[in-house]
Specification:
This protein is of the alpha/beta class and about 425 residues long. It has 13 helices and 16 strands. Helices cover about 40% and strands about 15% of the residues. The protein has an eight-stranded mixed beta sheet, sandwiched between helices. A four-stranded antiparallel beta sheet has the order 12-13-16-15, covered by helices on one side. The chain has a two-stranded parallel sheet with strand order 1-14. Helix 2 (about 50-65) crosses helix 10 and helix 5 (about 115-125) crosses helix 9 (about 280-290). The model has no long low-confidence stretch (mean pLDDT about 95). The chain binds pyridoxal-5'-phosphate (PLP).
Length: about 425
């Protein structure tokens, strides 16, 4: 039999985008001695505090005392298939109501295998055919563009502005789509510190975005992965909390505030969908799709996350308090170290100073591609992520992304020292 070739498989498999998330998770294994600014993953020291057994016991006690299950039934819940919509929907809805003032009923929540699955389900449900286009803020998290590729959903980029989304650019894309006989069906945004851009939407911009969504008739996919890193007392209401027109599908993850290995995220989709004279919430349809993707999110993962939430009074803010402080400290530390070390390296090396999130982006005068990354890792012992992975076009070819989340301040210092040596040599005397 002749061997399979990539062009005989789904077109998305020929797209380098599909390798980008795996790359981030695997590159460190290839260079174990390098200081890694690559992954946007939680600091591993935080995992030692998590007692998985006690979280599970806490969740089982909740099932017994609050939901009236017998102990044997509650235990069985963890071993069996479960409802596709999830097991901890009520806990998540309570948390979002209490912490963020969102008017959320548990029926409008679907628990997903990470935010990643949430994005896939939202796109599958909303994008009914080739006319339906996803708008993303360019640059953006590769997971959502990758999910769109998998589903064959066309994607257009909208400019990022210091306030998150350039609304003029978004309106222009809506008009352009109409002229092509298409429509912007959804716009993906990360208003609480974007990955990798680092922008945060002020309240007025959030309101304006909802206004544009209403006028142009599209849905907003709100991804709040990094909102918890906002400076203390500087909270801004989430889009979903401002969403009187039910334009927002709110996507959340426990990967950054708990741990990514649990693979637990969620979607709030409270849009009524008319059907046979009645209606069902969009969340119900997302759960139906999910039943054909991952069937249900691992009950064990949900039990651990549910237990962690309960341990912290059902509050994500409480649960993430120490982590948020650690990441804020690391981000400031990284930006300060860059200020001190990179300042006189090269006049065309520039970096941003985001107020939250995990990432700093650095513009350099040479191409920040895989070849340069290999040089950086092998000769200088420092890893970063090429920003080109996050752009639809070539705008990120001369930028790299540094993540502060996976390192201690001492490791950040060492990493920036190595990075400075690397940039000094490779930007003045490039290897190619
Ligand atoms: C913006 C953003 N959303 C979602 C995710 C992924 O979330 P999950 O691990 O829950 O799929 C990430 C992970 O890096 C991210 O950066």
């Amino acid at each position: 039999m002749p061997p399979l070739t990539v062009d005989q498989l789904h077109a998305s498999l020929g797209d380098p985008l599909l390798g980008s998330i795996g790359f981030l998770n695997e590159v460190m294994g290839r260079y174990p001695d390098a200081v890694s600014f690559a992954p946007g993953a939680p600091h591993p020291s935080l995992f030692s505090e998590i007692d998985i057994g006690s979280c599970i016991r806490r969740f089982i006690a909740h099932l017994v005392h609050e939901r009236g299950l017998a102990v044997s039934q509650a235990r069985r819940t963890l071993f069996e298939y479960g409802p596709s919509r999830g097991l901890i929907n009520d806990l998540v809805a309570d948390t979002l109501r209490r912490d963020h003032g969102m008017d959320v009923h548990s029926d409008s929540v679907v628990i997903t295998a990470g935010a990643q699955e949430g994005m896939l389900l939202c796109l599958r449900a909303l994008c009914a055919g080739p006319r339906d286009v996803l708008a993303i803020v360019d640059p953006c998290f590769a997971g959502v563009t990758g999910a769109a590729r998998l589903l064959g959903v066309p994607v257009v980029g909208v400019d990022e502005s210091p306030e998150g989304v350039d609304l003029d650019s978004l309106r222009k894309e809506c008009r352009a789509a109409r002229l092509r006989g298409q429509r912007i069906r959804a716009c993906y945004v990360a208003p609480g510190f974007s990955n990798p851009g680092g922008s945060r939407m002020p309240l007025e911009s959030r309101r304006s975005l909802l206004d544009v969504a209403e006028r142009e008739d599209f849905y907003v996919l709100e991804d709040n992965a990094y909102g918890f890193t906002a400076p203390m007392g500087a909270d801004i209401p989430q889009l979903k909390a401002l969403d009187t027109g039910r334009r927002v599908l709110h996507i959340g993850t426990f990967a950054k505030v708990c741990f990514p290995g649990a693979r637990v995220g969620y979607v709030v989709a409270d849009q009524p969908v008319q059907e046979d004279g009645g209606h069902q919430l969009l969340a119900r349809h997302l759960a139906a799709l999910k039943s054909m993707v991952t069937v249900n999110t691992s009950p064990l993962g949900q039990a651990v996350i549910g237990g962690m939430l309960l341990e912290h009074g059902g509050s994500l803010i409480e649960l993430s308090r120490t982590k948020a402080a650690l990441y804020r400290r690391n981000l400031v530390h990284l930006a300060d170290a860059l200020d001190q070390n990179l300042r006189d390296t090269h006049p065309r090396i520039r970096w941003n100073h985001p107020e939250g999130g995990f990432f700093v982006r650095v513009r350099i005068p040479v191409r920040a591609d895989m070849e340069l990354l290999a040089v950086s890792a092998e000769k200088y012992g420092v890893l970063w992520t090429p920003m080109s992975q996050f752009y639809l076009g070539s705008a990120g070819d001369y930028e790299l992304r540094l993540s502060c989340s996976y390192l201690t301040p001492e490791e950040i210092d060492e990493g920036v020292r190595r990075l400075t040596g690397f940039l000094r040599k490779e930007t003045l005397h490039p290897h190619r």
